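Hi U.,

Before I forget, here's the chain from the pilot set. I'm dumping it here mostly so it's searchable later in email.
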Amino acid sequence: MALFDLPLDALRSYRPQLSEPEDFDLFWEKTLAEARSHEQGARFEPVRTPLTAVEVYDVTFAGFGGHPIKGWFLHPAGAREPLPLVVEFLSYGGGRGLPHTHLLWSSAGFAHFVMDTRGQGSGWSGGDTADPVGGGPAFPGFMTRGIEDPHGYYYRRLITDAVRAVEAARSHPLADAARTAATGMSQGGGITLAVGALVPDLAAIAPDVPFLCHFERAATLTDRLPYREIGSFLQTHRGRDAQVFRTLSYFDGVHFAARGRAPALFSTALEDQTCPPSTVFAAFNAYAGDDKRIEVYSFNDHEGGGPFHEEAQLRWLPQRLAER
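Structure:
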């Protein structure tokens, strides 16, 4: 696969002019206030597993609308004092799966919270959280569920869940709230950008090949799913372009990035046709924090840096959390 997007020099200065809703901040302020009107009620139930170096809890907390959201909380076995906390959000289509598939951060000495993804979890990894909210006609997938109006859009619920997940994870006695980071790959990276803006006291964020950025360019540049769901919806519902992209503007990672302040480690891959590099650089270049860095993987597709980027995160994040 050849490079298909802008040259790297152009990507480093790419700053598109996007239409940000005038009520963007008010929209999210009201959304989170409504969610917080429901008692969070985070429950951490110990789980017996064959793992000997890690302790695991099955977590349930109240997300958007007070709906029950699942997660895993893991920490090094025998830990007695609060640990730096990593909250992780998952890629498109997957769920929390099994605890032993999430050992990276706990084996490095962190407390680790993995949020299940409402309504997903039937693709590459199983999930346990339903989405009880309906919507209008949608193309198969999640990108167009409720896309007629931002208040009913699927990602309003999911991003709200993510903010509440941080709050739930911080309530565990072994989580150090002052040393909390958010991370995720692809969809999880886009959610990480949103959480970085909506939870202003995070110690760091690490969005890896983030999805949900610069929707209009993505939807017209790549034929890959999930962005292609938007085009397929509009192919059938002709003439709704302005309505659809206005809804998406409330969830664009570029707008969230402009509000982020925590130290940030991004990544992108120049052959990535799922999350094109120009959409990632649009968010990175808009990011408001002074301490930001992006790792570029020149000949990779959506797998990005894979284990090499995990190693980069493992070297970068402890420094940021130790500074708190």
